[in-house]
Write a structure and sequence with these properties.
The protein is an alpha/beta fold. The protein contains 11 helices and 13 strands. The strands form 4 sheets. A 5-stranded mixed beta sheet has the order 4-3-5-13-6, sandwiched between helices. Helix 1 packs across helix 4 and helix 5 packs across helix 11. It starts with a helix and ends with a helix.
Amino acid sequence: MNITLRQLRLFLEVFETRSITAAAARQHITQSAASKVIAELEAQLGFDLFDRTTRRVEPNDAAKEFHAFAVDVIATMQAATRSVEELIAMKRGKVSIAASPLMVYGLLSGPISDYRARFPGIRFELHELSTDETVESVRAGTVDFGLGAIDAESHGVSATPIYRDGMRVVVNPRDPLAGRQSLSLADLSECDHISLRRFYSVRRTLDQLVADKGVSLPSGIEVGTLTSALGLVRRGAGVLIAPGYVANIAEEWGMRTIRIADLPDDVHQISLIQRRLARPTLAARQFLLELVACLDQSVK
């Protein structure tokens, strides 16, 4: 049995109008074509649906029983069509993202706010995670994509660089270094540092950079998040070397940042992390296009 939507729609029209001629007019087909469609439907079902007279076409008991199922099928298809149309019009949908808390604050909050101003029906689900947790979340399909400073290949996910910035020193505004325009790593070897634990890729990147320069950065405090590190800097507990987007946040919060003279301005790289062979939702794909464009512009 291969009942079509065309057959069901015409059946409902005949059921309502009690006339093949009227139903044909509503469906913009000829009376003979409509009669043929109904005859094909009855042949597929194996029983008649209408008692025909010269003036009317009356639904029989079988038609009345079949009517409820036909209505359900057509209503379901109409709802599905509206759903797709709404999604295409970006009236609703969900975007799920994993990133560190300060990436959400410094890199995602602006693009998300702009996006939702234009598409208020799109809901965002943000998972504030470390880079390693972000990779696992993407691999498991918990989120549409993630952002992170990836320093190694990861099975099952792809990482595409979409943002680059430098490293800066964050200090308390009352620190003697606060007036300096730049510092070298040798200068920083004499400071007391606040550092992240090694499960953060930014810590591993920094360790490699200073090792290549033959410098040691003594750390008196090790923390689990950059938010905690900034709180400690603000209290004067030490200095912090952080990515540029974090340094911008630190300045918003009243701290001072200083350029590191012997590190390149693009030394820190953030990648878009996606599950291989996955196809993001329409809402996620559109947001990604706008996010990449925004981050590319911010680098320039």
